[in-house]
Design goal:
4 copies of one chain form a homotetramer.
Chain A: E1 3-8, H1 13-24, E2 27-35, H2 42-52, E3 56-61, H3 63-76, H4 88-107, E4 111-113, H5 122-133, E5 138-140, H6 142-146, H7 150-160, E6 173-177, E7 180-184, E8 214-221, E9 224-228, E10 231-232, H8 235-248, E11 253-259, E12 265-271, H9 273-289, H10 292-310, H11 318-329, E13 335-342, E14 345-352, H12 360-369, H13 373-383, H14 385-394, H15 396-400
Helix pairs in contact in A: 1-7, 3-4, 4-5, 8-9, 10-11
Protein name (chains A, B, C, D): Argininosuccinate synthase
Pathway (chains A, B, C, D): Amino-acid biosynthesis; L-arginine biosynthesis; L-arginine from L-ornithine and carbamoyl phosphate: step 2/3
Catalytic activity (chains A, B, C, D): L-citrulline + L-aspartate + ATP = 2-(N(omega)-L-arginino)succinate + AMP + diphosphate + H(+)
Chain lengths: ~400, ~400, ~400, ~400
């Protein structure tokens, strides 16, 4: 009986060829395709795997799990790698790894396989996640291993009857899920050149966005977006809807030269209309509901979670510890944010919360009570004391001179 | 002979009344007005002080010093307090304090005075700075001390012949310099309400900005902006010019509910067209010229400098230490950034640098040399090892079951 | 009916005088004395309050709560302020504040009072804690308010029949609880002079400690010390016992010039035999049970908790968030540590844990499996890549020259 | 003409065999041995290389450079990896790499070689450093490459006439320099067992240390130790002398289970009498000469430098930036520290400095001036305001109930 391998299958040329290649290595291949909101025809992909030679083919709807566990963590962490990249692919990789391992354990497979090359971050995210979830599974990376040129790969495909897409000269390499769409490749490599308009799909060019702003209201409960324009929605649906609305106004384009984990700089173009809008709205709600000490320390946690996810360590024991912190901070992040979408901007215009630490009554209270002359005088005296003492010691001569 | 006091004079009602009030306390008053790019008629203000009763009146042009020392530090630190506020007033306070102390030492004054109330951050910034520069000087805060109502203040002014402005019902409290304009007050206090259009002055409303984008090029040398659209300019002039250009496109409006040092949340509206544009451009130039370790650690330094400046500790000995770090990182931040200004957006479209760590030749080099199969395999194996070992220990039973 | 105040009563001169002084201000005084392991005769103190004039007197045994909530948090956080001070008094203040507020709410008091002066940290800890727990309670600080000289205080006491201790020339100011003993005052103020032997009470001078080492074993379960030398003990009892054993060997003397919150440097002498021993043992158990990422990030959390507690912010909403992180990390901190106590040293000689990530089997496993030539080669290549690229760009000329 | 390689030669079996092995690969071998204070007979080693077959043999005295650049940075950074390991070998590796590159450039060699295996940190430190200094040099790691068993290596040596040491059953693997001595190996691997006495060489067992304490005085100028017991000494000599004095009292033994960069935990035994004493003394001098803000932020920089050095990134551009910070902080770290060495303890008993921010005069000054009732009252009110407001909002019902 042949060894079984579970392959993360996308329907593209690389993983299609991988099915055949793995069979030739003596494996029985189980294809596994996840729906994390990439907007492809997944039933077609599921069937394609079988046609090419997979023994079995899974199509798993993981949109809710992706939204509620992965995207939500990124949202509440205000996760922007290097201040710019909202962790789109980095969020789906651990979820895909988890599903691959589940299928492998159910099917009694001894290995799992992914279609990443040796130059990117995703290979790290897949392999570390899989090892974390089941250290006994072997991980295969056919594309990295065969290291063919594009021509060699096409020759192999043709000789085995694997369909080769006609638009092979598409210069882009795309990954997409609910949290956004990433795009890298040849034409983007000159950092002095602006990305071509064809690089974008989820967002309108600013020149074509509506000339009227659109006001939306997002409601949060304990840090979770629960309603859009007064309509209660599950998180996955809310994100999908917001992608359409905010994308129409050109919100969420990102052009980023980033430091990959594996040591090189790469240029990436991202689109994330919903993520960009939600990240702003959530932060503004925190601005009125978190006390200063929490607001000022939370970014340290945020940066660490972001780095951890980017670097493929979602399943490290550090993640639940960081989430232990995060969860505590979201208790009172409840309220409504009004956002104006217009010409690529998502402008927060209004915020309200039953737990607002900023309100008229309080302002009056503090005016009368706390802000008398003496409080500030005493505060300033002690706040500046170390600096004053330092000056007194080090400027002795100077002052008297 | 009467004691001398040097007063930070703005020309407004508060500090005009303070001249008289200080005289009644037995002081001889030396007014001191700084030009840090606020765009007022400063000669008029200088004369006004004398008319009201100051013994002497200074008008000091500090635009270059403000730009080259204070704004530049903020730029290179990517200083945004709580991720939003670019430290406009917080940057001018230590410079004004420095000039007040210099004048006080020159004139043999025993005290300096400022016009801040007891509710804001600026009182802290003035007083800690003055004490740091000369611990022997007394600091007076007449407005905080007399604690009059608006009516009482006007009565006092009228009875002493001090001119009372006619637009006293102006609901805003403004401070402006080269780095931007800040605006707080009554009408802004409802956080659910958008700021009224009258709150803004440096920036066009998005609805009225040009329908054609404008492309600009900013050139940096060792982290310093030195030319705009190929015209070499001193920093103060470059900022002033960019304020006009970017302001026309509505760039740099900020609506921020922030945590003041003295413990309350306040709502502020800022405009900073040049700062917003330069901050983006500088960051993008760093993205291609700094190695990953520097890029990832620098934000820790940036956050500390930002906090220090916001909290009035510019003259703490911590500042030169942080700048010691900062200066080293700017050595190779040389190059040109192309920015598209359009409908409130400052979009970096192109970057180039003689020190770029991202370029074609290198990409080719790394492709051939570094990114073979084995490098990534080995890297991932050791990178994920702690997580793998943790799983092997903690999932012993599970995996075999 | 007179207003009621609950006074934190220690039995010393200051708070004894405060009972009378508060009565003269029109208050009915309820004395409240906590047992947090200070080793005093608390029944005597309880009675003394009544004799001096308190209307009621509480003596509350809070040793277990102190140990299990406050000392344990400090232990698991490896809390050492400025790397030296294990937060002795800083830990008891919030607990005392909590009890004062509980008594005040039960008795319908409108105010609580403490005996701190205006120069220390403890006034901050008491007042911020009380305000956090019940913002409506007034806080009184009689000693800070009356600001008498020692002589004036004694005159007042004598005239009201309040007993004045005979050893008033005792130069030390002491505070003690289970987690240690702190000592500040006059004779310690010269930082070039060693503290006199009389400053210490819980620890033997090194010159007098036993000439034979003593080996002890401490058992932890999920980060909590649960047994000492194979005897299961509640945490309060375990700490008390360990104070005796480790104190005999001179463990835990600290001589610290520290930065107080209120802006001055002060010199303090601490003794904490149990805390010093437990802190070392707990850290070593973490060294074998935590993965690297957790071990390297936890100190950031530790430093923040330490700072928060020192600065009187135990009841800030930041504390539960930090504890949310902390709790997650303690899940597997289970095992036994063997410590050699000898001549002031607490030397960890052995560690074992069912969850050890360091063990023979694993060493063998990793040797065979992970550490082949290629893994390290690939790792090093990518690890050093940013530095290599930086050199390649910046040393172009040099290398070929 | 054969290719040239510069080999880091230690005189031990591994690098002796490497000379022969490299020759058989077609290299002409230049041996290079550095004196960084390891206390070996280096002339003997230099000659041995030639006898075994090296074409040339260098012996470079690098003690001063090691002390003044590498050990001093570690001292001023209070560098203790994971709170325990003072970076002994991690400090010498970049210096050795630098000398190897210098010799290679001078001799026109195309490669350098080191004797590390594939399981440790040192291979990373060597290779990243060499690539940083000259990206064109090839790096060879013969021991990692041949991956022989001990027996195979001895067979190879015997067959080539390379002398095999008689004490090959020595279970320890030692590295030593001025900053200390590290020791790993077989017998140490059981973490429950104490290290055997034979593992130590620089320090007396506590049981055998003198029964009289020894008082020493260390003088610092701008953060640099310049005199010991009033004798001015160069840093290398001062460290060497202090190793003898403090070692006699058993100071500086460390038993550490640490996380290596390459992902495993290892157990190491270190001895560092001078380093342990200097680290304590330097920190105490900073305690009286640095203001609070600097003292509280410097540990962030310290931890980063420590991590960087441990991880082999000494020549990263991040290092000079961190040193830019560090240097600024050392300006006033001038003064004298008195240390009592006794039974394994290095106890700081006295500190004095012309720049002390803690002194009698100041204490009096602040008592009279700063610490009046009102300063603290105002400070506490504003310090605790966020927490108070949070409580007021969240406990509304509770308090009135």
């Amino acid at each position: 009986m042949s060894k079984k391998v579970v392959l993360a299958y996308s329907g593209g040329l690389d993983t299609s060829v991988a099915i055949q290649w793995l069979k030739e290595q003596g494996y029985s291949v189980i294809a596994c395709c996840l729906d994390v909101g990439e907007g492809k025809d997944l039933d077609f992909i599921k069937d394609k795997a079988l046609k090419i030679g997979a023994e079995k083919s899974y199509m798993i709807d993981a949109q809710d799990e992706f939204a509620e566990e992965f995207a939500l963590t990124a949202l509440q962490s205000h996760a922007l790698y290097e201040g710019k990249y909202p962790l789109i692919s980095a969020l789906s990789r651990p979820l895909i790894a988890k599903k691959l391992v589940e299928v492998a354990e159910k099917e009694g497979a001894s290995a799992v396989a992914h279609g990443c090359t040796g130059k990117g971050n995703d290979q790290v995210r897949f392999e570390v996640s899989i090892k974390a979830l089941n250290p006994d599974l072997e991980v295969l990376a056919p594309v990295r291993e065969w290291s063919w040129s594009r021509e060699e790969e096409i020759d192999y495909a043709s000789s085995r009857g694997i369909p080769v897409p006609i638009n092979l000269d598409n210069p882009f390499s795309i990954d997409q899920n609910l949290w956004g769409r990433s795009n890298e490749c040849g034409v983007l490599e000159d950092p002095w050149a602006a990305p071509p308009e064809e690089a974008y799909e989820l967002t309108q060019a600013l020149e074509k966005t509506p000339d009227q702003p659109e006001l939306i209201e997002i409601e949060f409960e304990k840090g979770v977006p629960v309603a859009l324009n007064n309509e209660s929605l599950g998180l996955a649906k809310l994100i999908a809807k917001l992608n359409t609305i905010a994308g129409k106004h050109g919100v969420g384009r990102i052009d980023h030269i980033e430091n990959r984990l594996i040591g090189i700089k790469s240029r990436e173009v991202y689109e994330c209309p919903a993520a960009a809008t939600l990240l702003k709205a959530h932060k503004e709600l925190e601005d009125i509901t978190l006390v200063k000490e929490v607001a000022h320390f939370k970014p340290v946690i945020e940066q660490k979670i972001t780095e951890l996810i980017y670097n493929g360590l979602w399943f490290s024991p550090l993640t639940p510890a960081l989430k232990g912190f995060l969860n505590e901070t979201q208790k009172y992040v409840t309220g409504t944010i009004r956002v104006k979408l217009f010409k690529g901007n998502a402008i927060v215009e209004g915020r309200k919360s039953p737990y607002s630490l900023y309100n008229e009554k309080l302002a009056t209270y503090t005016k009368e009570d706390a802000f008398n002359h003496q409080s500030s005088v005493g505060f300033i005296e002690l706040w500046g004391l170390p600096t004053t003492v330092h000056s007194a010691i080090h400027q002795k001569g100077k002052v008297n001179a």
